[in-house]
Amino acid sequence: MDWEDVRYFVAVARAGTATGAARAVNASPSTVIKRIGDLEKALGHLLFDRSRAGYALTEFGQAVLGRAEPFELAAHDIVRLAEGAPTRPTGRVRVSTTESLATWWLVPRLSAFQERHPGLNVELLAGSEVLSLTRRETDIALRLARPEGGDLLVRRVGEVGFAGYQRRGGGENGWLCFHEQPAQSAIARFPESRLKGREPVLRASDFATHQVAVRAGLGCALLPCFMGEIDPDLERVTPGAPELVLGLWLVVHRDLRSNPRVKAMIDFLVDLTHSTRQELAGKA
Fold first, then answer.
1. Cβ atoms of residues 111 and 122 within 8 Å
2. How confident is the model at residue 84 (pLDDT cuts 50, 70, 90)?
3. What's residue 101's pLDDT?
């Protein structure tokens, strides 16, 4: 027996005609007639006495109707339950940010996101390359510079502090600089300004290499405070406020702002930047 046939049966029992039932279930009269015939064949009994006046329930049909109506009520309850239940986002959400933010700040905290949204998978795109939200290369971006142009929603969610660090207990032994100027030229200019005409001890392209070099005693380096402060082998060259502060911007394409999976990650990142704002800014 096809449960969908029962819905057509209830409609005919109430309307008394195939035409009236067809309007109720948004189908053609011929479809209604076929459905009733299929149900009677499956049950092995006639449900209606047909006449020019319409369809009248048989004694067996009356008994079936009494048992079919609760199914209809249950179906309506299920629909209401689905409409009232919170939608759990599922699928993949892509987040792009710098390698340092991804590795030292975001990844250690992603388990909280997974617990909150077990149906979502995160694709973390970490690196210096600025991926395009317009071309859908990423869903959400965390950037240290405010983007210009494009149909983007941009929100400043915090600030990131940078400071000079050296190996704990060691004396200043020159400065490390960047092999290639990073996207934030202010970050590149800071250690260059400390050289005072001397050549840098080492040039490297990323903060992770700088951190390892400082721990090895090769010199001082400008690092994000959220990296330097949690490393027990490092200490700030100049205690107190960070030497450099950049804004942290959350960026999403306008078309994706209401997407459930994207919105779930946006809400998580906004909460996370707020709860760790002192650490990010280097004031903890």
1. no
2. low
3. 95
